[in-house]
TrEMBL record:
It comes from the Bacteria. Keywords: Aminotransferase, Pyridoxal phosphate, Transferase. The keyword Cell division does not apply. This is Aminotransferase class V-fold PLP-dependent enzyme. It comes from Pontivivens nitratireducens. GO terms for molecular function: transaminase activity. Residues 27-240 form the Aminotransferase class V domain.
Amino acid sequence: MATLDLDFVRAQFPAFADPSLRGLAHFENAGGSFACAQVIERLTRFYTSRKLQPYGDTAPSAAGGAEMDEARSRLAAMLNVGEDEIAFGPSTTQNTYVLANAFRQMMQPGDAVVVTNQDHEANSGPWRRLADEGFEVREWRMNAEGHLALRDLEALLDDRVRVVCFPHCSNLIAQINDVPAIVAKVHAAGALACVDGVSYAPHGLPDIGALGADIYLFSTYKTYGPHQGILCATRAVIDALPNQGHWFNAKYPGKRLTPAGPDHAQIAACAGIADYIDALYAHHFEAEPQAGPVARAARVHDLMRAREMALTGPVLECLSDLDVRVLGALDPADRAPTIALHHARKGADLAADLATDGIMCGGGDFYAVRLLEAMGIDPAHGVLRVSFTHYTSEEEIDGLCAALQRVL
C-alpha cells in the first residue's frame, strides 16, 4: 500500500507556509480544517473575475455557473450519488434544520423519529424540536462504553418510526459506527436512515452509495474547503419531501432542499476539494491504471485513514500513562483521530495551558451536552479535545505528547 507523502500534502496547504502560524500546531481540526490551495485559488478567482450572477450570456458569468456545476458533478461522482442528489447550504446544522422541517410537513400524527445521545446538539436539535409539533422523539442511547448497540435500536423501531438519525462517528467519542449494519436495521423496519457525517468525512470522503444511507450530511469547511454544508439525499427522498425552496425551483431536485439563494463563490470553490483528492491520487498512485471518481476517492480515503491511524497510536499510548480518562475506543482502527480527554482540571483551562506550547486545540462541551451527561461528565467542566488529520506531522504529534505530559 502506498505511504502518504507528507511533504507533498503539506505543500497543498498555504497555511503551513504562513508566517503568522509558524510555531503553532493545528489540533482543532474537528472544528474546521485548513483550506487546501485548490479551494483558495478557485475562491479567489471567482471573487476576482466571476463575481456576477452566474449562468448568464457573458463569458465570466457563464464560467461562474460552469464552476458551480463542476463542483456539484465532481463531488457527486466521488461520493457515489447522483448530481441531482446533492444540495449545498450554509452549514450542516442549517441543512438539518431545513430537512427536519420538510419531514415535519410530511409526517402524520403518531409518527416518530429516532435520534441518539451520541450526536451533538447542533445536528440533532432540529429533529428533537419535532416533539414540539406533537411527534414522538425516541432516543437511541449509548451503552456504558459510549457505543450505540444495534439491539438497543431494535427495541425502538416499529411501524411508526419514519426516520432514524445518527452520526457516522461522534465529535467526542469518535468511534466509527457501522453505518451499513444500522441502515439495514432501519430499512427492515420501513424507516429512512439519516447519517450525520460531519465528524467522519474529514478523514476520507465516504462512498455514500455503498453505505446505503437515504440521507448523508457533512461540512466542507472540515474537508479542506469553504464554509458550506453538503446534503446528499436519494431521489426517492427528495421527491417525497415537500419543496423547501422557491416554488419555481420545485422541479429541480438539487434545489428543493435549499430555501435561499446559494453562495455562488463558495459552491464553485468546493470543486477544489475534488481537485485536491485527484492531486493526491495522481501523486501516490500514478503507476496504477486510471480509475473512476469513486475508486480514486476510495484510494485516497484509505491513504488518509492509514496515515491517521499511525498518528493516533502514539497519542493514545502517551495518554495511557497519564491520569486522564480517554473517551471512546482505544484502538486507532475503531475511531477517528479526534480524542476527548476528561481530567480533574476543566477542559477549557487545559486548552489555554496547551496554547502556551503552541498547541491549538479546544476545551468545553462541544455541543455534546447529552453525551457528556450520559458518560457522567459535567458539561460545565467539559473535556479537552485534540483532533488532527492526515496532514499532521510526526513532529507535531511529538510536540502534542510532550505538552500533554506537562499539563496533565
